[in-house]
Amino acid sequence: MSRYNFLLSKALIVTFLCITGVALWLIAASSYATKIAPVAAFLEVKKSCKVASSKNQNKFVVYVPSEQMANNLINIVCENEVVKRQYGSVEINWGYDLKDAISFIGKGNADLILTKQHIMDAFMAESTYNYQPVIGYLDYKAYFISLTEKPSIDKAYFLDKRIGLVDYPTSRSAHILPKGVFRDLDINLDSLSITYASSHSALRNLLAEGKVDIIASYWKEDDMTRFSENYITPMSNNISGSRWYYKMDSNNTDLFCALQGVLEQQSKQQLAVYFQEAIRFGTCHEL
User: Fold this and answer.
1) 215: Cα separation from own chain's centroid
2) If you placed Cys at 270, which of 68, 181, 258, 275 could pair as Cys (CB 3.0 to 4.6 Å)?
């Protein structure tokens, strides 16, 4: 009988330890989920600022395709006198996928947005939400660029090449279009040797240093000093340049023109010459 009691006590102890272990695991899992929740929220990618001492509840919402652009833009928008007069805060959102931009355009959620004209046309956003172009950039072409030979749009050609692209899924010339060419040629991306660079300038350095055989990018005038125009191959017709659109709910010309000045200022701070050559829309006075 005592042996029976001993075995029973041992079984109860084992059961207690198992239940305790499961309970501790559940508590830890719950705690871990609580800890990662703020991280998930942070990944919704936005920056904001408040106008000092303002009681205005209106929020000016901006959408851009990258965090870098948001960082460049946040201070000059927040410090603009017209913005401070009309709004209490500014929120700049960014995203790297086309679907992110579409969610803002389709619902008219952004007061100011940088996007392509064909996307605006697809959603009839100019007529639906009265989005008006503020400034824009020139149309351009995308090319495959090599250092020692003219690239060939051919499956066999790409399979043994080291290829350079930019690590921005929103870049048409250096990400979207070349990958589209590879798909059209029935090339599995996993079978290609692709190196991703942080910018078009970094791509050019990879090519010039012989670290890749071919890159995808636009062609600019000063490329002639490093590469040969004989060794470029177009992969597309003209690509429409991006435009900044302002949702003009009312005839708010003061804000329209203030934004034009802000965006031109931001464009001039860009390293790429392409973005420095902004085209004005409308008839604003010089600010």
Assistant:
1) 20
2) 275
